[in-house]
Each structure stands twice: as structure tokens, then as C-alpha cells.
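REVIEWER CHECKLIST
Item 1: Sequence provided? yes
Item 2: Single chain? yes
Item 3: Sequence as submitted:
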Amino acid sequence: MENWQSLMKTGNAFFEQCAWFDAQYYYQNAISHIEALWPSDPQNIQLLLGWISGMHNLSALFEIQGDFQSALHYLKTPHEHMLSISQDDSQTETMQLIALRALKITLTPLLEFSKDHPICDPCLESLHAAEDIMNSSQPIIH
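Item 4: Structure as written out by the authors:
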């Protein structure tokens, strides 16, 4: 059985060859592998980053094909998940901090996407609110 990293690399190779169907298959399998491993190790940064990367790869794949609705979905899903964890008081402080840091990775592509493709006003307002939360959570160094 292949591990998620090799599945992701195979997906990237197919993406480079413009073999969209094959790339999607491997990205989705990599994400499924990560999602199977994650519950037993929820603070594993490598799994988190791999999951976000896989979702962003799927977004790029759909965007290049002109399916902007699906592209947005694969950008929003990890962002909303990290935002939820960062604000969930039942999560450990470590997990909230991990999620808050991951928001830096998820927010920028969404803001870039919104420059090229119109998204609804409430969604855009939500992104800017998340940007404010992220910026206000940064320690100030004097």
C-alpha cells in the first residue's frame, strides 16, 4: 500500500502532465490516507500540512479546468476547519495554536482566489474577519 506522500507525488506528476482525472484520483487518495491516520495523531503537523496541500492541489486542478465552484470548495474546506478549531475552546491550547498558524496557509490562497473569481459578499467578509483574527492573534515584539 502506498503512503500518502507517494500518492501526492504521483498526483503532482499527473498534474504536470495535464492528466486531470489521474491527478484528482491520486490527490483524493492521498487525502483519504491522511484522514484515516489523523484521528490517532491529531497534532501531527506533517499530516495537517499534507491535508491542506492535497486540498489546495485539488483546488488548483479544478480552477485550471474552469470549475471555480469546486476550486473554491477545496480552498474553503481546510480554512473553515482550521478556523473552527482555532476558536473551539474544547480543543487543547496546542491544537488551537496549530490551527491558528495553519490559517496563514489557508487564508492567502482564498484571498488570491477572490481577486480572480468573484465570491459572495458574506464569504469575502468572513475572509477579512479571519484575516483580522489572525493578525490580532500575533504577538507584538517591541
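Item 5: Key structural point noted by reviewer: Helices lie at 4-16, 20-37, 45-64, 68-87, 93-116, 121-136.
Item 6: Recommendation: ____
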